[in-house]
Specification:
Length: 384
């Protein structure tokens, strides 16, 4: 069995590639970073180091890498005979890999079982987004292309930080915890062999619980930490005020998750406690800069802050803590992140009400609008 995985970065090697290997697949990594592709091809094995309580090493073998920028045809050829295609490139990159997957499906024999396509990104229905990009490329030919693939949404959870200096080869340091939930309906019973994953009937509660708890809490910690001049995620949560603010934010998202999906208060309290312990892992070298990356994406309409806050406001639930976190996100400044630079430029040049709608997609008249405008106005006053 063969899997083509797009994006040989942190989660690609440290989680998706590892679980595919454990499922018995030969893994072909596709990436655009030439030094990374070369480094992978220079090794016959790499080790995933899970650090912290319950950690340990796992060795991955049976992989190679192709450079999809230098040799897209090689990726097309691999896809034509693969069983599985996964991605971990970032939600905004999916449209750039859609043409390669489309070409791979065109080249694929209709006699083969369908290619299982699963986007493993931090976004709601990322695989549907990828499928829609491919369908747009196929146009009238879509039914024939669609018949050669199964598209399933997934939720992936494992903290894989930026990698420490001096680590061997393409080894990866990760946290011990992991979860990979995949919707099973599209497979009509023939689910791929991935023992580390679990297949569920309805993915929405899983991906929303993950994005609106793990990722809301993580990004909140990053933005409060960055504003306080703290570098590491675990250090940020050692600050009692930041810990309290993150807890309050997550209590608000939990209230939304209970209303939307019927989780019990107890199970979400347990889930929150677990993820806070994960963030506090002192052996994980994770930074506020990685976790806070791409603040414009994170502040967008269906993402980890505005998604749950908009729903909470519509339901008359509290949004005070979420708005406080948005305020911290608006203060995220680093010259290394183009979205952070663009956000600060927008804050300097754009009137508050226009900025709110442009960045968050929330319009005047929505019950969250005035709170967002107040957060923007406060940040603009600080910048003046
Ligand atoms: N790191 C984590 O803890 C984690 C956990 C769960 C989900 N995710 C999600 O996984 C995705 C990747 O995150 P990451 O932390 O691994 O990022 P990363 O930057 O470490 O890896 C992304 C990789 O994608 C490659 N890439 C970029 N454009 C490409 C293209 N057109 N074709 C092929 N490869 C391309 C990059 O070169 C890089 O190697 C994101 O959506 C992220 O939200 C990350
Ligand atoms: O990858 P992002 O930028 O959407 O979010 C940053 C982190 O919160 C994220 O990568 C987590 O480490 C991961 O989602 C844990 O499963």
């Amino acid at each position: 069995m063969k899997a083509v995985h797009f994006g040989a970065g942190n989660i690609g090697r440290g989680f998706v590639g590892l679980l595919l290997h454990e499922g018995g697949y030969e893994v072909v990594f596709s990436d655009v970073a030439a030094p990374l592709v070369d480094a992978i091809n220079a090794e016959t094995s790499y080790t995933v180091h899970a650090v912290g309580d319950g950690g340990g090493d796992t060795v991955v073998t049976g992989f190679r890498a192709v450079n999809s920028q230098l040799d897209p045809q090689a990726v097309v050829d691999e896809l034509a005979t693969a069983d599985v295609a996964t991605t971990a490139v970032g939600p905004n990159i999916l449209r750039f890999i859609a043409p390669v997957i489309y070409a791979g499906l065109v080249a694929r024999s209709a006699e083969l079982p369908p290619l299982a396509v699963m986007a493993c990104e931090n976004a709601i229905r990322a695989t549907d987004t990828l499928r829609d990009e491919i369908a747009a490329l196929a146009g009238a030919g879509w039914p024939a292309v669609a018949a050669k693939a199964v598209f399933a949404n997934t939720a992936v959870d494992r903290i894989v930080p930026g990698q420490p200096e001096g680590q061997h080869g393409v080894d990866v340091t990760v946290e011990p915890f992991f979860e990979w939930a995949i919707e099973q309906g599209p497979f009509a019973g023939a689910v791929p062999s991935i023992p580390g994953a679990h297949f569920v009937d309805d993915l929405t509660p899983y991906i929303e619980r993950k994005l609106f708890t793990v990722n809301t809490g993580h990004a909140s910690t990053a933005y409060f930490g960055a504003r306080a001049g703290i570098e590491r995620i675990s250090d940020a949560l050692a600050d009692p005020e930041i810990l309290a603010a993150v807890r309050s934010t997550l209590e608000e998202t939990s209230a939304v998750l209970i209303a939307r999906h019927g989780f019990t208060a107890e199970e979400l309290a347990d889930y929150r406690a677990t993820i806070l312990r994960r963030f506090q892992n002192p052996e994980l070298p994770d930074t506020v800069w990685r976790v806070g990356r791409q603040p414009l994406r994170k502040l967008s309409r269906h993402e980890r802050f505005v998604g749950p806050a908009a729903d909470a406001a519509e339901r008359g639930l509290s949004v005070a803590a979420l708005l406080g976190t948005v305020g911290a996100a608006l203060a995220f400044e680093t010259a290394d992140d183009p979205e952070a630079v663009e956000l600060q430029e927008l804050l300097r040049t754009t009137e508050a009400t226009a900025l709110v709608t442009r960045v968050t997609g929330i319009e005047a008249g929505h019950p969250l609008f005035d709170g967002l405008v107040a957060a923007v106005t406060t940040r603009q006053a600080d910048l003046a």
